[in-house]
Amino acid sequence: MDKFTTLTGVAAPLPIHNLDTDKIFPAIYLKTIKRTGLAQWLFQEIRFRPDGSENPDFVLNQAPYRQAKILIGAENFGCGSSREHAPWALLDYGIRCVIAPSFADIFYNNCFKNGILPIKVPKEVADELMEDAKKGANAVMTIDLEAQTISRPDGEKVHFEVDAFRKHCLIHGHDDIALTEQVEHEISGYEQKAQMQRPWQFGMTQRGAPSS
Questions:
Q1: Residue ranges of the chain assigned to CATH 3.20.19.10
Q2: Could you give the CA distance from residue 125 to residue 127 in angstroms, rounded to a whole number?
């Protein structure tokens, strides 16, 4: 996955409490395991009208926020089902960071595994950032993962906490597959040792030749 070091971009305000994953990515579109092309269905039920036209009241359809890279959300962001398509669709749209007072656990974990940084901040801080995000084109923030800071539009910096291991993975672009590949030598060594000790489990004779 792409590395996350610093991110500067417009932050879009999304003050919807208990925003569930079905609102983020409707279940009707769970017909693919591809991670691209999903942005077209992101927030489909609230981003578009029944006739398919854009809902002008939805924040991502408004000019300052069409290119938003950061979302400022409300409590319990990403609740509901565990679908990984929700962070996939956010990432496909261009969202790399979501800031909220609290997240649903599975959505929170899925974000880290897919290159999105979810940041938990106290409610009063989230409220201030929400007001910043309402400034339209001036709602530019910078996220510095190494320093663990959010730079507000006025220059003030807000510190946030993040798990050290997850921070390391994001900075270096390591998803679960990349982490596994880092210990490929140890895995190969274990497999070779296991084949020698228990050849019958691998369909081999004691001498290492395939069994008939």
A1: 6-174
A2: 5
pLDDT digit string, tens, across residues 138-150 = 999 999 999 999 9
End-to-end CA distance of the chain: 43
- pTM greater than 0.90: no
| Chain-centre distance for alpha carbon 18 | 17
Residue 207 burial (CB count, 10 A): 6
Tokens of residue 159, six digits: 């510190």
Range 6-174 classified under CATH 3.20.19.10:
yes
Question: What are the structure tokens assigned to 95, written together?
Answer: 């969202």
| Location of structure tokens 């309402």 | 134
Burial class (CB in 10 A: 0-12, 13-18, 19+), 77: buried
Which amino acid is it at 96?
R
Helices (H), 74-147: 85-93, 105-113, 123-133
